[in-house]
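Dear colleague,

Following up on Tuesday's group meeting, I ran the structure prediction for the two-component complex that the binding team flagged. I've pasted the input sequences exactly as they went in, so you can double-check that nothing got truncated or mislabelled along the way. The structure tokens for the whole assembly follow below. Feel free to forward this to whoever is handling the docking comparison.

Inputs:
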Amino acid sequence: MRNSRWLALVSPLGFLLLWELAGRGGLLDARFVPPPSTILRTLAVMTQSGELPYHVAVSVRRIVLGFFLGAAPAVALGLAMGLSRPVRALLMPLVAAIYPIPKIAVYPLIIFYLGLGEASKVSIVALSIFFLVLLNTMAGVIGLDRAYFHIARAYGAGPVGVFTTVAFPGALPAIFTGLKLGMGFALIVIVGFLIWRSYQIFAVDAMFAGLLVTALLGWLATAGLDWLEQRALPWRP
Amino acid sequence: MTPVSALPQVQVRMAVAGLTKVYPGPRAPLTALQDVTFAVREGEFCALIGPSGCGKTTLLHILAGLTAPTGGTVTLPPRRPGHLPAAVVFQGTSTFPWFTVLQNVEYGLRLMGVPPRERRERALQHIRQVGLLPFADAFPSQLSEGMRQRVSIARALATDPDVLLMDEPFANLDEQNRLLLQDELLRIWQEQRKTVLFVTHSLDEALRLADRVLVMSASPGHIKAEVAVPFDRPRDYRAIRQDPRYGPLSASLWELLRGEVLRGRQP
């Protein structure tokens, strides 16, 4: 077990080493594919200038806010749609129609309504994860064994009791699946801005620096969600 | 439901009269229960036996308040605060995997609004009774199927119900564990003398546990016969199986049931 933990470092470090060697050996053109050492230097410079910490802080804020604003109503609505056939019949056509639209395609429209400021960026994150969490939550409730609902009602649970003691805890694993999928989308729409801007000014090393930070943020976010999941679902075998 | 004063006799705990359940079928309405009438006396252990698909589970769901009958009445003692008129032990999936043993057993009390301290005490007392005290904080996934059924029994008993309804609670257990759990159920019943309605499809289980066996007909289900079980209490499995009355009793019960099982198999 200890060994496999160290093995996990071999492939990324080995990849970086090969990359560096290929750059120094002249196999890769440093203008298009700067070696890791150059990217690290750029990262250091961007960190010292405060540019990178600023971007990261702004991104994290957008992601956290957007996550909360998107996930909270999605869980509530997903539970309602999972529990009630009429609610599902009423809303499912709308959800099915909007869900497949690439959220980045809606972005110009959001800017048009909300301006270029933070509101539009938080909204795009919220929108990206809303449907993923909604659909996963709904599927989680529908997939629950009917026996749980029988037990709850036989012991006197009303609609609120069924909601809090069966539907929500029962759908929680599926909710986490939705959150994890949503995290990927949130990172695409947010940190993408930094990379896109660097591309526009042809700052290749800054683009790579952005990619690296994105990867790191993604890894941290996933680890955070995993940690939270283990806390929230101690009952899973 | 009518109040207790309407019961024909004081010692009757649960009275079921003229119960009928009709489901709207795809073509013609489907009658699951037809005029089911019986009573369970206070402190009586009553078994209900019948062929598969005869409406046993439908009947139990009506008694538990999960399904409304099309006609007829169920009369139970009036609701007392902190107690359930009828508590159910279900077959198969009967515990919530997201709650610990303690939380599962507290469940009924929590829904009734019993204060946390009392709830915990009552739950722990019943967890001890089924021998699971060391597992109070374990999750069901860490327990065996037999232990999970014991949790389910503890949850029902913790609500101190007027009637304990059991829907083939040991159906998913292997025979040896089933025998052990039957022993345990009899021991607990001997201590508390709860009124029990135990649904089963096993002749052996019915004769081993009950004072009286109600025999249901094939669908549409109604009570076809009732058989008194004469064995002494507390009961011992070995003694019952060696009792000269066991063979004839088992044979006559099967005679009653056989025709119904055959009839139930016709499409």
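The mean pLDDT of chain A is 86.

Cheers,
M.
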